[in-house]
Amino acid sequence: MKTAPLALSVSAFLAFPAFSETIGTVTASFDDGEPRTYYAFEDTGESQSFWTQTLPGMLNASSFSIWANPQEGSNATNDVLILGGTLIRGPGGYTVIAELEYLQSYFSEYWTNPEEGSVSLELNNVEQQGDRLVVSGTFTAPVFYTENASNPQTDMNRSMTITGEFAASLPKD
């Protein structure tokens, strides 16, 4: 489940090099450090951030991905947060099977969690507005240093915790 949104984010990044309108933010702290704000962009309907509706007319099983850049108005491959997940309808609303990656140096040096279900993501809002998914919430994720995405080598002894909040209005993929 981790590779599909990630692969789509990477291919979208390569296809669309410049973005102009901010469609979301992620504010994150690394190991309880000072919070930093990251930005998701869109230009004429194209974005690295998106949502995919699996079941027509329903949000259940839909997935989303927020590619959050370190500077407003500028695309990046380093110092990037990728936050996303799959929505699951349950009693009282939606929960998320979430994932978080921090690209320190694109995919040659990055931080991820290889254990599914260990990223905690709480939704404050999730709703479809036309062809957009409006989503916001908070997250906490233990992540581990990883090298070489084509043959990942994760160092489970080198970890940090990323916590924060997010809000975005994502275009439909």
Global structural class:
mainly beta
Mean model confidence by pLDDT: 88
What are the segments in which pLDDT stays under 50 over at least 5 consecutive residues? 1-17
How many structural domains can be distinguished in the coordinates? 1
**Binned strand content:** over 45%
Helix fraction by DSSP (H/I, runs of at least 4): under 10%
- What composes the largest sheet? 10 strands, antiparallel
Q: If you had to describe this structure to a student in words, what would you say it looks like?
A:
8% of the residues lie in helices and 57% in strands. It has one helix and ten strands. A hairpin with a 5-residue loop joins strand 1 and strand 2. The radius of gyration is 15 Å and the shape is globular.
List the SSEs and their pairings.
Elements: H1 3-15, E1 21-30, E2 36-42, E3 50-52, E4 63-68, E5 80-90, E6 93-105, E7 109-112, E8 120-129, E9 132-147, E10 153-171
Antiparallel strand pairs: 1-2, 1-10, 3-4, 4-5, 5-6, 6-7, 7-9, 8-9, 9-10
Signal peptide: 1-20
Keywords: Signal
Protein name: PEP-CTERM sorting domain-containing protein
Any descriptors?
173 residues; mainly beta; ten-stranded antiparallel β-sheet; 1 helix; globular; disordered N terminus
Q: What's this model, at a glance?
A:
Keywords: Signal. The chain is mainly β and 173 residues long.
